[in-house]
Specification:
The protein is an all-alpha fold and 426 residues long. It has 17 helices and no strands.
């Protein structure tokens, strides 16, 4: 007991590592992964029930985002083998069979989102060329392969270039989100802020329950957490968990500040009827605003925001999908007693991703939204519940037992999953 106490106190007494430019780059990459195409629909989905439920959601989503992603990062860092990714850590802690199952689920939760971004980037650029630039549509197959190869070339070039490109993209994205939020302030209608508009407790609770999944997945950056945690382990060793927690905290604050200000500004400048109409027309919030205000300024900025948001989020989700597919292939080869060649597996993954993203982007199927919804419970399970289960079952994670935050994360995970399942079946 004395040895354990001494080691804990010495760890707590260890000086914090200094903040670096690389840490800032990781904050921006985590932010960029979360701010995908879905964020443009968040004001519609989260704001349809008025100001007060949205305020309650804002108070919840900050700690939910930070604590859940911190738990997943701690899980990845709990491996006894330095450099292990999430698929290897799962196998190490829960055994080969559980490792295969969770790796399979992990891949199929993230991979459809990568496909959706292939469709989204093609639609966004095609719409911009036709509606804003007055050009004729390119053949869809040609346009999609050009865009996909452009994004994939950054990923193939390596993590450092990906981080630099993400940093380059996220700064204008943050600037545009902030500018748009301020630009809409003169349009605010504060009637919904009145206490007279407070819903009944029953309606309030139901609204929160069914909207929590929307918030969870609009702020989700779990696909990049494994690569992020590995990078912290390489760079900071024993201080990796402390550094990862600080970066995740700043990323969560940045998401909460910029994104929710944008959401509030959109919601306060539109009526519930406007938001319902935008949802019925399946329009991103900026597209609806451009149509409503007939503003060429917004009509040009909207596609730019969508393009930057999709590309920055694609990078983080691709890392997670690649990790999942690599894990599946290597585990299958090991089971068959065959040699694992990581370079060959990487090449296969790249070819598979380009081919399938291109095929889906060319076909442009409408079923992708449903596939994304079906992946929701898996993402919530991996992000919220698996790390909390590991706290009680994995010796390396038991130092985190007893925290109130564990109960909060578990409860929010169960609420999110129950609401998703309710939406699927009722």
């Amino acid at each position: 007991m004395q040895t354990k106490t001494a080691s804990v106190s010495s760890a707590s007494a260890a000086p914090k590592s200094r903040w670096s430019a690389q840490d800032t780059t990781w904050v921006l990459s985590l932010f960029g992964t979360a701010v995908g195409a879905g964020i443009l629909f968040l004001p519609i989905n989260a704001g349809m029930n008025g100001f007060w439920p949205l305020l309650a959601m804002t108070l919840l989503i900050g700690p939910m985002t930070y604590l859940a992603h911190r738990g997943l990062a701690r899980f990845v860092l709990s491996s006894a083998k330095p450099g292990s990714d999430i698929t290897e850590v799962v196998e190490e802690h829960f055994g080969a069979s559980a490792g295969k199952l969770i790796t399979l689920l992990y891949f199929f939760a993230i991979y459809p989102i990568v496909l959706i971004y292939g469709v989204g980037i093609t639609n966004t650029v095609d719409s911009f060329m036709v509606n804003q630039l007055g050009m004729a549509s390119m053949p869809r197959a040609l346009l999609s392969i050009i865009l996909i190869l452009g994004m994939m070339s950054v990923m193939i070039a390596g993590e450092k270039l990906m981080l630099k490109v993400t940093q380059f993209l996220v700064y204008p994205l943050v600037g545009i989100l902030l500018f748009m939020s301020v630009y809409l302030i003169p349009e605010w209608n504060l009637a919904s802020v009145s206490l007279d508009t407070l819903p009944s407790w029953g309606d309030f609770a139901v609204t929160l329950w069914i909207t929590i999944p929307v918030l969870v997945f609009s702020f989700n950056h779990s696909p990049i957490i494994s690569a992020f945690s590995q990078a912290q382990a390489r760079e900071h060793g024993e201080q990796a968990e402390e550094k990862a927690s600080r970066i995740l905290a700043r990323s969560a604050m940045m998401l909460l500040g910029f994104v929710m200000f944008f959401v509030f500004s959109c919601v306060l400048s539109l009526s519930p009827q406007d938001l319902a109409q935008a949802k019925a027309e399946n329009l991103a919030i900026l597209s609806y605003l451009a149509n409503k205000h007939d503003s060429p300024f917004i009509s040009y900025l909207g596609p730019v925001v969508a393009f930057v948001a999709i590309v920055s989020s694609f990078f983080g989700h691709y890392l997670g999908a690649r990790e999942g597919l690599n894990g599946l292939v290597s585990k299958q080869l090991k089971s068959a007693g065959k040699q694992v060649n990581e370079k060959n597996i990487d090449k296969f993954t790249v070819v598979f991703m380009i081919a399938t993203i291109w095929l889906v982007a060319t076909v442009n199927p409408s079923i992708l939204g449903m596939i994304e919804t079906l992946g929701g419970p898996i993402i919530a399970t991996i992000l919220f519940l698996m790390p909390m289960y590991a706290v009680h079952k994995v010796p390396a994670m038991q130092k985190y037992k007893g925290a109130v935050s564990n109960v909060f994360v578990t409860l929010m995970g169960l609420i999110a999953i129950s609401a998703i399942l309710y939406g699927l079946f009722f």
